[in-house]
Amino acid sequence: MSKPHSPSQAVSQLKDQLSSEKRKLGFLFGAGASMAVGIPGVIALTDKITDKIDSKYKNLFVNFKSEIKSNNIEFILNKLRTVRELIGESETDKYLNIEGKTNAQEFDLAICKAISDLVSKAAASSIDPHLHFTNWLFRYQTNRLNPVEIFTTNYDLLLEEAFEDRKIPYFDGFVGAINPFLIPECIEAENTKAYSHVYVPLTWLRLWKIHGSINWFLYKDVKAKNRITRNTGRIASPGDELMIFPSKQKYDESRRLPFLLFQDRLRKYLSHGEALFVIIGYSFGDEHINEMIMQSLRANKRLAITALMFGDFDHSGKRVTSDAILSLGVENPNLTILGPDRACIGGNISNWEFDGAYSAGDIYWIDSSKIFDLGNFSTFSSYLKQHFAF
Fold first, then answer.
1. Do the bridges between strand 24-29 and strand 275-280 make them parallel or antiparallel, or are there none, so unpaired?
2. H-type alpha helices, the chain
3. I want to staple 279 with a disulfide (CB 3.0 to 4.6 A). Which of 99, 211, 307, 373 is the partner?
4. What is this structure's pTM?
5. Model confidence over 197-245: pLDDT tens digits?
């Protein structure tokens, strides 16, 4: 193993990178950013749905999970919606113990209601980390030459809550007041003369929810056409679908549209120009996103990505970084991976070794267990508050 990495040097370099106003700045938030404030991750969420779902559908949900051999709510919803398409308009056809159109719709709706309750703001212990992050954005990003783009795989509304609490304007791809609708031309627009007629103001944040949101709904309009809306106060009706997670099945174009748009936006952001992309709370579990990241690292040599990893717990309860994730940094030197026990910087994997005298102000370092803690979103946001003095 090569020379140990210095935690203080790593955070100093990251601070300098975040301070640059000329390069593009983007973030990818994974489940860990929400788990830091008590929102359950995918597997824990699935377990909690069993208790939260309307009692009428509890046994059906348990049996359906068992039948398809999955404890992942994203896969479960995909499978359920495939079943709904197979059932079609029939009230007697039965697949995987789900009988009839109405029963399938109501079952889907019950699951969506449980998910919304479990990942709502009320389920979070606090949104202070998101508020700290938002304060930093407000104070330091208004003079940037390009808007900050935030991509997230999370369905919750914690970032929206924080932005609106601090009265920071942002664009999430939708416009409108009653039933907001998706506007692709503004999502695709770049800060050039050719797009000036549809370009959202430069000072507005961009929030791209790659896996959907608990306030996105697919519904049928008065002409029985599928429509997608973003409506936080909407009361779901039978036949509505909660738009979370892009299905692996062959969905019709109306269902696929938002996911494809935001995936293309991520690809475009990463593929050209000088950019810093900070990943936090993401464990590299989505192969499609991983593929876009790796392709862009190879194609765009002006792209620098820093992944702040919380890590996994080993048998002794210590947080560790997997060899598989660290190896991504060896293959791509412009990918820096800062894990709790080890890091890969400039293609070199090594342990951390704190240099100099530790003080309580070094909040990115847990000295008792020798853990680099910037992969904890709560610590990362506190670091921004401490070192950028807002």
1. parallel
2. 7-19, 31-35, 42-52, 55-68, 73-87, 101-118, 128-140, 158-165, 184-188, 253-271, 287-299, 323-331, 377-387
3. 307
4. 0.92
5. 999 999 999 999 999 999 999 888 888 888 899 998 887 777 788 888 7
